[in-house]
């Protein structure tokens, strides 16, 4: 796993060096390889723009694979100590003020996380795309001064959250710089725009991402990654319900 | 003879008797009015909920629990043959319920999308108005929902949901009608669409969440996995609520009764004190102590009888008028969750009036007897001299 970035570089190099229009699947694979890692530990901030100004929520996340993640909120003081645990398709939240753990499912998954444009469902969504979507390269466009492939993805299975997506993938770095997610009807539901990209351990990571619920008014939510470490060892108990009250 | 004596004594007491009668009759009217309002609330809310939502009972799909929002995502199942047959016969209608979100003017409102048959006449719900506009997805909402979302008839709004596989879908729906209903559970946070449209949109063909049986129709005996909920069961909440309100009101009734009985008790004590010589005379004339005690008890009890008659004569027409015209409720009442609308019509059942009168008379008789017991210990000679024991 430590040499994954070499694979991304080689794969990317192979795609770009050929000079031909590459296979969409190969691009998606390169994107997944760039994002994917066995484990990740990150600290990030969510700047939520609201009617009465903006507020910032800071948190630390431990992620293992695509199924398990644990998050602890650090700021603001009112949310400090709130923890969330995702195991597979289940999500629990712990609120220290009431010392209670609640399972979040059903309609509650559609509620926004801390008033942001991200719902719990968005947090739980599996980000690996290759194999799940049929990609078609539509065009090339410049986003953030980078030349990008514009890929239109159509779901191969009928149990995916989004039926189709359009994404702008950096032709060299294989990082998604912009993404539109669509409903089955074709209506635009969510947009994400990366405004800053950094290289960490040979991976290109969207440091600042703006999420927007396209059906909702407002300025959206800015997601800023402050630190991120890939493939670090995470104790087993972090992904158990015991972590919530710890 | 004792009754005649008692009546004469009471009329002779004049203002004292009148005051007691008036106070007791006011208590009687207050109790009947309050209980009538509560009973009216119970009947009105129950009737409205039966007409608009419960019908003659409901069959719930295996995983449906209206008190558990987490169950809604799995609360759809294929209709069993027995229920399908009932629906076919017109003895029941099916409802499909799916969670969704509406986005009026960019705001987010979680809703329940409820699919209903357009031609249904089982529930008092204007489902027939759906489709009047010819819109692809016509929708019906209630006034409360319209108020909270700012939607009006003819508006178009984006509705988002997940299909049976969990894939997001969103389309614009047209608000074909805004209905006025007293039943909040079919209004607040609910959006009604044609059931076949909802089935197409969610890929849930032939599925339903619940089946509402027509009032008076016979429910199928056993339906596999689907549980039948009787109207009594469905109305348990509202009845428990009324019961708790009744128990709360009981405290007020007891205080009112206590005050009225205090007046009767004092009157009896005073009466016995002032009429010591009369008691002695009656005993000297041959009345036993028990008869004299009975006379005084009868006088007190008659106050209760007069109070009931006065309440019936004065309060009766007023209460009858109130039951016809109703009591216009303040707007805030709507937020309490009762399906009673703007006007509450009290209901004074024969049981309510009879029971209240009986309790009043029984308590008055008891309170009248307590001071009169002392007479049992009187000696005629002492009483004639105006001496008390």
Sum this structure up briefly.
The complex is a heterodimer of chains A (246) and B (389). Chain A is mainly β. Helices cover 15% and strands 48% of the residues of chain A.
**CATH architectural grouping of the largest domain in chain A:** Clam
Give the integer mean of the pLDDT values of chain B. Answer: 85
Oligomer: heterodimer
Radius of gyration of chain B: 31 Å
Quote the distance from N terminus to C terminus of chain A.
Answer: 30 Å
Query: How far from one another are the termini of chain B?
Result: 27 Å
Range of helix content of chain B = 40-55%
- Beta percentage of chain A is over 45%
The CATH topology of the largest domain in chain A corresponds to outer membrane lipoprotein receptor (LolB), chain A
Structure, described:
The complex is a heterodimer of chains A (246) and B (389). Chain A is mainly β and 246 residues long. Helices cover 15% and strands 48% of the residues of chain A. Chain A has four helices and 13 strands. In chain A, helix 1 (4-18) packs antiparallel against helix 2 (24-35). Chain B has 389 residues and is an alpha+beta fold. In chain B, 50% of the residues lie in helices and 17% in strands. Chain B is built from eleven helices and 13 strands. Chain B has helices spanning 2-13, 15-54, 81-89, 143-149, 195-202, 231-234, 236-274, 276-284, 289-325, 350-372, 380-384, and strands at 58-60, 77-78, 92-103, 109-116, 138-142, 156-162, 168-179, 190-194, 207-208, 210-213, 227-229, 327-328, 343-344. In chain B, strand 3 (92-103) and strand 4 (109-116) form a beta hairpin. The longest helix of chain B is centred in the first third of the chain and has 40 residues, at 15-54. Classes of the chains: A mainly beta (246), B alpha+beta (389). The A-B interface holds A 103, 105-108, 110-112, 155, 158-163, 181, 183-185, 187, 189, 213, 215-218 and B 69-73, 99, 101, 103, 105-108, 110, 158, 160, 162-163, 165-171.
């Amino acid at each position: 796993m430590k040499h994954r970035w070499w694979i991304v570089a080689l794969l990317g190099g192979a795609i770009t060096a050929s000079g031909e229009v590459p296979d969409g699947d190969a691009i998606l694979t390169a994107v997944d390889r760039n994002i994917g890692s066995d484990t990740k530990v990150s600290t990030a901030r969510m700047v939520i723009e609201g009617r009465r100004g903006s507020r910032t929520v800071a948190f630390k996340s431990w992620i293992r694979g695509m199924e398990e993640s644990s998050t602890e909120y650090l700021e603001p003081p009112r949310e400090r100590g709130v923890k969330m645990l995702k195991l597979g398709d289940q999500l629990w939240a712990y609120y220290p003020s009431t010392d209670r753990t609640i399972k979040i499912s059903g309609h509650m998954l559609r509620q926004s996380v801390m008033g942001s444009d991200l719902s719990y469902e968005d947090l739980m969504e599996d980000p690996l795309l290759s194999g799940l979507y049929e990609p078609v390269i539509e065009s090339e466009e410049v986003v953030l001064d980078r030349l990008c492939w514009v890929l239109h993805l159509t779901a191969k299975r009928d149990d995916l959250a989004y039926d189709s997506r359009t994404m702008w993938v950096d032709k060299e770095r294989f990082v998604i710089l912009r993404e539109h997610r669509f409903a089955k009807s074709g209506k635009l539901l969510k947009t994400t725009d990366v405004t800053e990209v950094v290289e960490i351990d040979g991976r290109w990571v969207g440091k600042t991402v703006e999420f927007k619920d396209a059906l909702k008014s407002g300025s959206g939510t800015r997601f800023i990654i402050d630190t991120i470490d890939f493939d670090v060892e995470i104790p087993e108990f972090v992904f158990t319900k015991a972590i919530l009250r710890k | 003879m004792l009754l005649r004596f008692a009546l004469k004594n009471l009329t002779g007491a004049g203002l004292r008797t009148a005051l007691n009668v008036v106070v007791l009759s006011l208590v009687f009217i207050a109790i009947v009015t309050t209980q009538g309002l509560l009973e009216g609330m119970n009947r009105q809310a129950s009737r409205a909920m039966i007409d608009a939502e419960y019908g003659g009972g409901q069959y719930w799909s295996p995983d449906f629990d209206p008190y558990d929002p987490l169950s809604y995502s799995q609360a759809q199942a294929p209709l069993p043959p027995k229920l399908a047959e009932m629906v076919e016969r017109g003895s029941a209608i099916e409802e499909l319920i799916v969670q969704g979100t509406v986005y009026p003017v960019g705001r987010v409102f979680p809703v329940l999308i409820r699919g209903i048959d357009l031609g249904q006449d089982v529930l008092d719900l204007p489902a027939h108005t759906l489709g009047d506009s010819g819109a692809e997805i016509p929708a019906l909402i209630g006034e409360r929902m319209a108020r909270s979302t700012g939607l009006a008839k003819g508006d178009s709004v984006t509705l988002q949901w997940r299909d049976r596989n969990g894939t997001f879908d969103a389309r614009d729906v047209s608000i074909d009608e805004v209905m006025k209903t007293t039943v909040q559970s079919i209004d607040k946070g609910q959006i009604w669409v044609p059931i076949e449209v909802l089935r197409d949109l969610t890929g849930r063909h032939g599925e339903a969440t619940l089946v509402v049986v027509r009032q008076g129709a016979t429910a199928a005996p056993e339906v596999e996995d689907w549980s039948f909920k009787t109207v009594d069961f469905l109305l348990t909440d509202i009845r428990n609520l009324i019961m708790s309100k009744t128990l709360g009101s009981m405290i007020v009734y007891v205080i009112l009764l206590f005050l009225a009985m205090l007046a009767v008790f004092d009157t009896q004590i005073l009466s016995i004190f002032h009429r010591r010589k009369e008691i002695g005379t009656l005993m000297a004339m041959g009345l036993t102590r028990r008869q004299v005690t009975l006379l005084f008890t009868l006088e007190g009890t008659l106050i209760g009888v007069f109070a009931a008659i006065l309440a019936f004569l004065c309060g009766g027409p007023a209460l009858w008028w109130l039951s016809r015209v109703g009591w216009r409720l303040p707007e805030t009442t709507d937020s309490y969750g009762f399906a009673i609308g703007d006007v509450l019509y009290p209901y004074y059942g024969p049981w309510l009036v009879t029971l209240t009168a009986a309790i009043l008379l029984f308590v008055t008789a008891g309170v009248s007897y307590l001071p009169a017991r002392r007479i049992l210990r009187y000696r005629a000679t002492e009483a004639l001299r105006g001496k008390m024991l």
